[in-house]
Specification:
- The protein is α+β, with helices and mostly antiparallel strands and 87 residues long.
- It folds into two domains: 37 residues, no CATH class; 42 residues, 2-Layer Sandwich (Double Stranded RNA Binding Domain), CATH 3.30.160.
- It contains three helices and six strands.
């Protein structure tokens, strides 16, 4: 289980392994569970969060000001024609 993330190595470490890592790489910044906001989001999670709920094969690429929601280009054309901007 990951307890630390090293930004320089781009790797996760358990509490035991991070001690050796920190001895070997004194200038690397490692972030513990308390600093999880500095950990990267896994690519699979990011892809899942950016998928359209209606058009399962489309990614969210636009924002509808009128409905205050993200949408894919297909939904933007079909349901959000008037006030849409890309992000």
């Amino acid at each position: 289980m990951a307890d630390f993330y090293c930004e320089s190595c781009v790797k996760f470490y358990c509490g035991e392994c991070v001690n050796m890592h920190n001895k070997l790489f004194t200038k690397h910044a490692s972030f513990g569970i308390g600093d999880m906001k500095k950990w990267p989001v896994a690519k699979k999670v990011e892809d899942f969060l950016l998928k359209c709920e209606v058009q399962k094969d489309e990614s969210l690429k636009m924002y509808c000001d009128e409905h205050s929601e993200l949408c894919c280009t297909k939904c933007a054309f079909l349901k959000h024609r008037y006030i849409v901007s890309s992000f």
